Amino acid sequence: xxxxxxxxxxxxxxxxxxxxxTLRALDDLPDYFWSISxxxxxxxxxxxxxxxxxxxxxxxxxVEIAVELFNIVTFSNIEKDIIIxxxxxxxxxxxxxxxxYMDKNHADFQANYLATFWxxxxxxxxxxxxECIRTHMGQWGQxxxxxxxxxxxxxxxxxxxxKLYDKYYEEE
Length: 172
Known about the structure:
Low-confidence stretches: none
Distance between the termini: 21 Å
Radius of gyration: 15 Å
Structural class: mainly alpha
Number of strands: 0
Mean pLDDT: 88
Shape: globular
Order of helices and strands: HHHHHHH
Largest sheet: none
Strand content: under 5%
């Protein structure tokens, strides 16, 4: 899974303003995003999301979970776009300012970064995306989800981070 596949995920966003803002933010992700593991210790994520490019694989899986769950959970089109954009960008600055370890405050770091980065943009869903990113860590984050959309983003990220997948895909 690659950079190109994550860029294609933005095409699942219908609203042009959200799609363009997501693309702008993808273009601005730090270089490390494309190569780091989803977990610096391997403690909190399944094997498929560890190692080189693991964070990209985790991110893709979280978006794919959301898209699949849209078949059984009802959201408006704008809510779906907010969810997809949020999941694409939620771990965009996972290292924060520390090049060695995942930043436990990375949700706030990324949300605050995007609030500044998008300060010249005014589009429907902007603040919702920022808050979904801020709350994506659920009960383990500094700010807890406050509505159905924020909780759904957290749930998709949580499901994508579960090690239960390892027991079904053990290497031979």
